[in-house]
Design a protein that fits this description.
The structure holds two protein chains of two kinds. Chain A is 36% helix and 27% strand. Chain A is of the alpha/beta class. Chain A folds into two domains: 7-22 and 80-287, Rossmann fold (3-Layer(aba) Sandwich), CATH 3.40.50.410; 31-78, no CATH class. In chain A, the strands form three sheets. In chain A, strands 5-4-3-6-7-10 form a six-stranded mixed β-sheet, sandwiched between helices. In chain A, strands 1-2 form a two-stranded antiparallel ribbon. In chain A, α3 packs antiparallel against α4 (140-152) and α5 (161-171) runs parallel beside α6. In chain A, 40% of the residues are buried. Chain B has five domains: 1-25 and 60-81 and 554-590; 85-210, Rossmann fold (3-Layer(aba) Sandwich); 215-301, Sandwich (Immunoglobulin-like); 308-462, Rossmann fold (3-Layer(aba) Sandwich), CATH 3.40.50.880; 480-529, no CATH class. Chain B starts with a strand and ends in an 11-residue tail after the last helix. Classes of the chains: A alpha/beta, B alpha+beta. The interface between A and B is medium-sized, with 41 and 27 residues.
């Protein structure tokens, strides 16, 4: 697998950061606001002093005016667990570069962005099962592990997004920002899993990685088509009429997916592998309000 | 249309492999898709007739076969013969030098290729209008307009010689005897080199195919301070590659070898010690399978000096004996008739009618009479350019007294002092007499280096003893002298066959390289003859190559291969175009 991220690419990502919807509960300090009071520069509220409170946070002006001992509370800047669920089923092995390569590169870029913002990032490759993956950790040491994991993951097997999400929910207790990266072209369902994920309170973003031939196949005449996952075969004469019919079906498929994701308030970005990753991140994701 | 390499057409059989692979391959294209989910239930397009035809007649297959045919035709080098204007008279000059023996890629030698080319050209001209010359340093008229002999037969019967390239002057002389070069509409040179300064009506067809590695110089020197010899070899690598080669020096009994890396298009000299050698005839061979083996071997013989047979008369002088023995091997004989040199010291002798005589402080009846001694001072050379005075400096000589000499015959004074001859020569057809007209022991001559030098010059010039350290390397075509080794009895070549030589001039001109044997009354002497080193050529630089269009004025052979290369490239581009999925024919969507 080629290098995911080069130095120049990272530099161009340096000014980006995630836009997180609402306040997130987090365990460790980060740069995302948390409903918990904490230590930061941004004042939040007063509360009565309780034994054990840090004397330094007693507001002595208020004490002078009101003769009450109150301690200041601040907005807690919590870190954000970022989960990168990346599809490595056989259908992702289509194209040059393959969808799996593109997805891995995208996941690596997102991981870098998260770790740069002191968030914890975890990666979970999946097919019809969830791989052990890397639980969320912060620090650039995690970046190396993520890159190795993505590099060593080989596409293969069937896709089951529902099953993968079910296993993901059982393995992770803390909600966070979830990137689900897949082509969404498998026969298995995705609705149930995504609905459960959204219900837990995760900030879910679906990145649909497609090969240009998935969107608009080439009319090449009689072709024996082989399903990358099931290896089922089908002989079809693909002319312009069939091509148009396929494209219409694909649009319907996309519309159905978009409608469902919208109903679940899940952000959806579709990208083909012939599009520059940099353009996709800098233009599409920023325009879509995912990054600032 | 003819082919230069028709055997390349056998490569067309590779088309069977292409067809085999085509039919073994699945007739349908196979394409992996992410999922059949969206494809299922699609009715598919009906196949058009053109599509069905394309399915059976794969354009890629046709293109591949076309490319194969074009490449095979390219390799076969087709040429179209176009006969245009035929000259009314033609002189063909075919290079018959050694280098034309080089084998070409077709297996024929350059000479054979040139002969074939010449025969093609001669077919367009009547025999009585043609002149064919084999040009070497000894050019031969193979056929003249006056001859009734068929020039083609003369050419076919000819073969390359072992001589070096001929000169243009010699050729012009020969053409002049046939009416002059301007008499011919066209003079065609078939050679492996480009002759500069050709007449305006001359053209050159080059035959310089073939790789050559050859020895261009070889000499052997006897080691002065240790046993054995040292060989000096110069090797030319006239190829474009670095070559691993082995040079072997042999004296017939033992040998020395040296492994070499020969740089391309370069000449290098090598010194090869051969301490085990006891021989006197050597061969150097470079072991590399090139296309001209003729120059891969070179011979060299250390010339064996013969003893000078000396007959002494009178008192012996040990300085004279020592100086003579220091310069040449000496054998004293008792019979004056067997002597090469008669030395007379301090004694008057009767007249000698023939032979070589050195008279020291001696008179000869009827030639010279010695008188009183007179004091002399400065020695001068009366004939400083005389061969007997070679390397001698008269200023070093100190002579106290010289004898007055009364000559009865004409004589030449070589050295003199105060007008009195010190060294004089009497020379006629049958005898050479050299007179030292002073007392040796009353001069410093015996203790100077000039004394052995004088005796050496005497021995080599008067007696004609061959040089012991001769480094001449005769080549085929050189005139070799047979003098100085005694009375010639025979000359034989490497195969022990007798070789003709000139009895009067005592010379012979070898026509082949090898080791010849000269037999005289003084023994057998090896004479080594080599192929001319000038024939080991570097390839003609491209700047010298004649324009191809010049050669085909009357019988033009148009090379067709560039067109087939173009065709192959075009077909390859079309195949790449199709392979990349760009449809050749635009279709209207229905």
């Amino acid at each position: 697998m080629p290098r995911f991220i080069d130095e120049a690419f990272l530099q161009r990502l340096a000014n980006l950061r995630f836009i997180v919807k609402g306040r997130r509960k987090g365990q460790l300090s980060g740069v995302h606001t948390s409903p918990r009071a904490g230590v930061s520069l941004e004042f939040s509220d007063y509360r009565a002093y309780a034994p054990g409170d840090d004397f330094r946070y007693i507001d002595w002006n208020v004490y002078g005016r009101l003769d009450r001992v109150l301690v200041k509370t601040f907005v807690h800047e919590a870190d954000l667990p970022i989960y990168l669920l990346t599809d490595f089923s056989a259908s992702m092995d289509i194209g040059t570069p393959s969808k799996a390569q593109y997805a891995a590169q995208f996941a690596a870029a997102m991981a870098y962005l998260g770790l740069k913002e002191l968030d914890r990032v975890g990666v979970y490759p999946f097919t019809d099962r969830l791989s052990p993956g890397l639980p969320p950790r912060h620090g650039m040491g995690q970046m190396g592990k993520i890159l190795r994991l993505l590099r060593d993951s080989e596409p293969g097997g069937h896709t089951s997004i529902d099953q993968a999400i079910t296993e993901f929910l059982s393995q992770t207790r803390e909600n966070g920002m979830v990137f689900l990266i897949s082509d969404f072209l498998g026969p298995g369902g995705y609705e149930e899993g995504l609905a459960r994920l959204a219900h837990r309170g995760d900030d879910v973003t679906v990145i649909q990685v497609l090969d240009p031939s998935d969107v608009s196949p080439v009319a090449v005449g009689t072709t024996r088509m082989v399903d990358a996952e099931s290896q089922q075969r089908m002989v079809l004469t693909v002319g312009h009429r069939t091509k148009e019919q396929y494209e219409q079906r694909f649009k319907d498929h996309q519309a159905k997916l978009a409608t469902f994701l919208l109903s679940q308030r899940i952000a959806h970005f579709a990208v083909t592998t012939d599009r520059s990753m940099e353009h996709f991140i800098h233009r599409d994701l920023r325009a879509g309000g995912l990054l600032s | 249309m003819s082919f230069l390499h028709p055997s390349a057409l056998y490569l067309l059989l590779a088309g069977l492999l292409i067809l085999l692979f085509h039919f073994l391959r699945s007739r349908e294209r196979q394409r992996e898709v992410s999922s059949l989910l969206l494809w299922r239930g699609l009715p598919g397009d009906p196949q058009s007739r053109a599509a069905r035809l394309r399915q059976h007649l794969d354009p890629l297959l046709l293109l591949q076969l076309g490319i194969l045919i074009a490449l095979c035709l390219t390799l076969a080098q087709p040429q179209l013969r176009v006969t245009e204007h035929s000259p009314s008279s033609l002189a063909i000059v075919i290079d018959g030098s050694v280098s034309m023996r080089t084998e070409t890629n077709t297996g024929a030698s350059r000479y054979e290729a040139a002969v074939n080319e010449a025969i093609l050209l001669l077919g367009t001209v009547p025999p009585e209008e043609t002149l064919v010359i084999q040009l070497t340093e000894h050019p031969i008229l193979l056929s003249t307009p006056a001859d009734l002999a068929d020039p083609i037969s003369a050419l076919q019967a000819s073969s390359p010689t072992w001589y070096a390239d001929g000169s243009l002057d010699g050729l012009m002389t020969m053409l002049g005897s046939a009416g002059g070069p301007e008499q011919f509409d066209r003079i065609l040179f078939l050679s492996d080199r480009v002759f500069p300064g050709l007449p305006a009506n001359a053209e050159t067809i080059l035959f310089d195919e073939g790789a050559n590695v050859g020895i261009t110089a070889f000499a052997v020197r006897t080691n002065l301070t240790s046993s054995g010899v040292t060989a000096f070899v110069e090797i030319l690598n006239a190829t474009d590659d670095y070559l691993d080669a082995t040079v072997r020096i042999s004296d017939g009994e033992s040998q020395a070898t040296l492994a070499l890396m020969l740089p391309p298009n370069d000449v290098d000299q090598y010194v090869i010690p051969f301490p085990a050698s006891r021989g006197s005839v050597f061969s150097a061979s470079v072991e590399y399978p090139d296309d001209l083996p003729a120059d891969n071997v070179r011979h060299f013989a250390l010339d064996r000096p013969i003893d000078v047979r000396v007959y002494w008369v009178g008192e012996r002088n040990r300085y004279l004996v020592a100086a003579l023995r220091a310069t040449v091997p000496v054998t004293e004989v008792d019979d004056v008739n067997d002597a090469d040199l008669i030395i007379v010291h301090r004694q008057d002798v009767p007249l000698v009618e023939q032979g070589v005589v050195l008279l020291v402080q001696s008179g000869m009846e009827g030639v010279v009479t010695l008188g009183e001694a007179h004091d002399v001072d400065t020695v001068t050379a009366a004939s400083p350019e005389h061969t007997l005075l070679r390397s001698i400096d008269p200023d070093d000589l100190r002579v106290r007294q010289a004898f007055h000499a009364e000559f009865d015959v004409p004589f030449d004074v070589l050295l003199s002092a105060d007008g009195m001859p010190l060294l004089a020569e009497v020379r006629d057809d049958s005898r050479r007499l050299l007179f030292l007209l002073f007392d040796l022991m009353n001069s410093n001559l015996p203790v100077t280096v000039d004394f052995p030098l004088l005796l050496r010059n005497l021995a080599y010039d008067l007696v004609r003893v061959p040089a012991a350290l001769a480094f001449e390397s005769p080549e085929v075509g050189d005139v070799l002298s047979l003098r100085g080794r005694g009375t010639v009895e025979s000359v034989t070549d490497s195969a022990d066959a007798a070789v003709e030589y000139s009895n009067t001039l005592l010379t012979f001109t070898p026509a082949r390289p090898g080791v010849y044997t000269l037999t005289t009354d003084r023994g057998a002497f090896a004479l080594t003859v080599n192929a001319p080193a000038s024939e080991t050529l570097l390839r003609n630089p491209s700047s010298q190559r004649p324009d191809e269009t010049i050669r085909a004025e009357s019988d033009r052979f148009l090379p067709m291969w560039p067109w087939f290369v173009l065709l192959a490239v075009l077909l390859l581009l079309i195949e790449a175009y199709i392979h990349l999925g760009i449809p050749l024919f635009s279709r209207r969507s229905t």
